[in-house]
Amino acid sequence: MLFLSDVLPAGYMAAEMCDIKRGDIVAVWGAGAVGQFAAVSAYLLGAERVIVIDRFPYRLRMAQEKVGAETINYEDTDVMDALREMTAGRGPDACIDAVGMEGHHASPALHAYDKAKQGMKVETDRPHALREAVLSCRNGGTISATGAYGGFVDKFPMGSFMNRSLTMRSGQAHVQRYMRPLLERIRKGQIDPSFIITHTMRLDDTPQGYDIFKNKQDDCVKVVLKP
């Protein structure tokens, strides 16, 4: 029940905003807790294939083994080329940005560009995942942006977005709206959110747990604290 308070509704809402049709291919940028739940939810809503993109092998492994998703490590592979190849040149029907404002990118030059603009306070966010999602999505497809953004982004591919008739939906998770229906899915055995728990610790160990999570140590995806 713990994850009904935040990350499960966030992931489910991200998938629901895609208006998934039976047989769709959905790509998810980010294999953290929200990305994992977005991938699970995409399957629940009828997606035929889900492709998860991240750079940490342990998170991609979780997406493969626990969710059944296909995966791309963006540090090893050009994401856009891989997605075109995996979708017969069309691109995914829907793309979910579960990364947000603090994204990284395989291109050191592009990452340095955004970091420099942040340092000069002319850009607040690093929209690497959002840019790639827009450029990768099939014509007429849907972008679902659930990763948090705080202000302004630069080099948004508006020409691609408009000329290819894409739709974007976004928002902070409407947690209370989703609590009851997701609780019913849990009770019916349609989803078991506990698969994202990698560490269980005492409440007194909160600083250590946060440090492990923040620094991506010990294959940490989610820490549960018990009083």
The averaged pLDDT comes out at 94
Order of helices and strands: HEHEHEHEHHEHEHEHE
Number of helices: 9
* Percent of residues in beta strands: 15-25%
> At the third CATH level, what is the topology name of the largest domain?
Rossmann fold
Text of the CATH class of the largest domain:
Alpha Beta
Number of strands: 8
Strand numbers in spatial order across the main sheet = 3-2-1-4-5-6
Strand count, sense and barrel status of the largest sheet are: 6 strands, parallel
Given as residue ranges, the uncertain stretches (5+ residues, pLDDT < 50) are none
Helix-residue proportion? 25-40%
Please state the second-level CATH architecture of the largest domain. Answer: 3-Layer(aba) Sandwich
What's the quick description here?
The protein is built from nine helices and eight strands.
